[in-house]
Amino acid sequence: MRWFHYNIDKVIRGFQGIVLMLAVYCLFDATRYVILLVRQQDPQQYSDLLNHFLVLALLSLLYLLLGVWQRERIRLKATIEVIGDGFALFDQTDRLIRCNPAFAHVYGATPKQLKRCHLHTILSDGYQKGRGIDPHGASCELWLNRQGPKKDRTQHRTSEVGTWDGRCLLVTERMTDQGERVVVHTDITHQQQQKEELLRLATYDALTGTLNRRSFMQQATEVLRQNRLRQRPVALLMLDVDRFKVVNDTYGHAEGD
Taking CA atoms, which of 16, 31, 114, 211 is between 20 and 30 Å from 247? Predict the structure, then answer.
């Protein structure tokens, strides 16, 4: 069954060839019956000729249906390859059935190189090459146990991970009814950068680069709470510059800032 998954395109083309040869043979045989019918006028030949044309019609219909199926598979494959998100389909044993270039590029490979590879192998090879998901200093074995397929094969799992080249990916995993795993990598680097920038603007003062009043009060409250629990002393130092208005009035606000 697994072999059928990986070679279905070849199977369809081969089956189409067989159907086409049978149709040609049936058409040739029907032509022979037409010639005999013209020469001998045997009523039995009518029945045989009709059977031949029925078989020929069925073979032609089967050939057309196989062609439609093949075109739809090609269209689906082309669609998967051109989408910006990384897409991968793994079988019940977590071996790769198909992926698009966007998914393979994350691990420094091509779809052909990753085909039939186990998910652990893909993650491990990417780790060794410094490509793919960044473990942030974790050991390879520990990281694989955390990032690899779960034994319970949950129906849905989503996580945000970083890559070695500095990108941020939203990794979504879903299970099909047949037990196959669908993995989608969505690049959310831009959204993450915007989120961090908004957090920075909401936390720090744009002029001095220090914590604004709200953030300072939050962090100071937490520091006081932690040191109170640990019974440690806390010191606060505040500096003030006397007659700073003179600096602004003399040299301008830009120099004062």
Answer: 211
Predicted local distance difference test score (pLDDT) of residue 4: 44
For residue 160, which of 152, 168, 151, 150 has the smallest C-alpha distance?
Answer: 168
pTM exceeds 0.85: no
Using CB atoms within 10 Å of the CB of residue 180, give its burial: 0 to 12 exposed, 13 to 18 middle, 19+ buried: middle
Residue type, 219: Q
| Dist CA 71 CA 61 (whole Å) | 15
